[in-house]
């Protein structure tokens, strides 16, 4: 009985130590989530305005604007930009992205991976990928985003790429986030149909096509960076939720172990009393 009590006490101490770790990680994730949400909210007006201008050009000049960014290269490959995490303990965040990858990405497609967890997944499945921007989710260097867009748009204009899509995790709220596939190139005019125009008549100089060809790379830079920050926000929200659940589970387990310990202790006391009484009666 004493050995059982000692074993339960050791388990309680072990769970309490784990609880301290998960609680600390929950607080860190909460702090990072607050910072990421602030950054995401500050970015939204910028790329929303860029989307608005692109929408205005495409809508007001529908059928008259010819741009290589509006035409799909049927002979080129499909390129996917995939955003995963570089750290673990974030619940089903990465698993959901991997599921979306398996549903959409074909064998002949190319992958630009962001996040070391995704790189490990592809390496394990022996799937080739581009790793030049693997740590972009930790550095958040906008210069790297510019280089990525320049590389992809150049390949797109050379007809090496048929279309560019991005798999990221869309942030809805602190408890809801889901993987989403966004088509970047060719620009899908359907993405802008619900955009309301602030200017009904706008004069573009020298012409809408030239403006659009210069604006599309800026548009891609802003949305890729915005979706990257949104994925990071979702990652921290998922990690905070996971650590909160782990802390709650640790508290429940401690309560169960304390109950077992008290039962064992009460049983030991009862046995001792019974032995004392039995010895007294024997005398």
From TrEMBL:
Belongs to the ATPase gamma chain family. Keywords: ATP synthesis, Cell membrane, CF(1), Coiled coil, Hydrogen ion transport, Ion transport, Membrane, Transport. It is found in: Cell membrane; Membrane. One of its GO terms (molecular function) is ATP binding. Residues 240-267 form a coiled coil. One of its GO terms (cellular component) is plasma membrane. This is ATP synthase gamma chain. It is a peripheral membrane protein. SUPFAM superfamilies: ATP synthase (F1-ATPase), gamma subunit. Its main location: membrane. F-type ATPases have 2 components, CF(1) - the catalytic core - and CF(0) - the membrane proton channel. CF(1) has five subunits: alpha(3), beta(3), gamma(1), delta(1), epsilon(1). CF(0) has three main subunits: a, b and c. GO terms for biological process: proton motive force-driven plasma membrane ATP synthesis. PANTHER family: ATP SYNTHASE GAMMA CHAIN, ATP SYNTHASE SUBUNIT GAMMA, MITOCHONDRIAL. InterPro entries: ATP_synth_F1_ATPase_gsu (IPR035968), ATP_synth_F1_gsu (IPR000131), ATP_synth_F1_gsu_CS (IPR023632). Produces ATP from ADP in the presence of a proton gradient across the membrane. The gamma chain is believed to be important in regulating ATPase activity and the flow of protons through the CF(0) complex.
């Amino acid at each position: 009985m004493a050995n059982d009590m000692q074993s339960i006490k050791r388990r309680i101490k072990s769970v309490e130590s784990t609880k301290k770790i998960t609680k600390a990680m929950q607080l860190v994730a909460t702090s990072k989530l607050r910072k990421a949400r602030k950054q995401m909210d500050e970015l939204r007006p910028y790329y929303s305005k860029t989307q608005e201008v692109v929408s205005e050009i495409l809508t007001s000049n529908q059928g008259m604007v010819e741009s290589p960014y509006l035409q799909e290269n049927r002979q080129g490959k499909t390129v996917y930009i995939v955003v995963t995490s570089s750290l673990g303990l974030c619940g089903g965040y990465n698993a959901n992205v991997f599921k979306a990858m398996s549903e959409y990405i074909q064998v002949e497609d190319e992958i630009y991976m962001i996040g070391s967890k995704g790189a490990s997944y592809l390496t394990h499945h022996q799937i080739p990928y581009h790793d030049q921007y693997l740590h972009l989710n930790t550095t958040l260097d906008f210069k790297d985003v510019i280089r990525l867009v320049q590389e992809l748009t150049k390949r797109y204009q050379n007809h090496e790429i048929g279309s560019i899509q991005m798999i990221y995790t869309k942030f809805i709220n602190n408890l809801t986030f889901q993987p989403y596939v966004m088509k970047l190139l060719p620009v899908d005019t359907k993405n802008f149909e619900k955009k309301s125009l602030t200017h009904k008549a706008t004069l573009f100089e020298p012409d809408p096509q030239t403006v659009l060809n210069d604006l599309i790379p800026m548009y891609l830079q802003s949305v890729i960076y915005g979706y990257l920050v949104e994925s990071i926000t979702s990652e921290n929200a998922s990690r905070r939720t996971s650590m909160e659940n782990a802390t709650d589970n640790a508290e429940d387990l401690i309560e169960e172990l304390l109950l077992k310990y008290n039962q064992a202790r009460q049983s030991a006391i009862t046995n001792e009393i019974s032995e004392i009484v039995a010895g007294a009666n024997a005398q």
